[in-house]
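Predict structure. Chain length: 158.
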Amino acid sequence: MVYELDEIVISFEEIYKGLPKRLGELINAPKYEIKSLTEGTIKKIFGEDNLPIEGVFLISNHTHNKMLYVGRSRNLATRIGVDLRATSREQATISYKLTTLKDDYPKLETIRDAREYMYKHYSVQMIKVPNENERAILQIYAAMKLGTINVFNSFRET
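Prediction complete.
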């Protein structure tokens, strides 16, 4: 099966073959503390000013050296630089999830508490992945390979 996106043709087979390499790129990408990542900082990291930066990212607890969440976005600068700073439940999905894991995080009662915890302990690695289908497949592949699918990553249908 072949998909056409923005005149780039990439088959499932091509994506599949490249998954181990892309996962390696992601886990070997530089780590940035979440607290330091603003929209402007992310654009500078990738050397882009105005264009949305499409990609996949990995959130880890650098204090405990544990990979937690694999995400994807059409605009990494907005998703990471803005959404991870959010305090509303609709936007702050990871922060909110932390507040529900009472056995692991008993002191995190509010989204603000969780966000502050993330700022102290979490880092992000990210890579550019311009193709939408590749982003989706890589996210699921990486979540399964890295074991993040059990807590933070969920691909359940509603």
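Summary: The longest strand covers residues 66-73.
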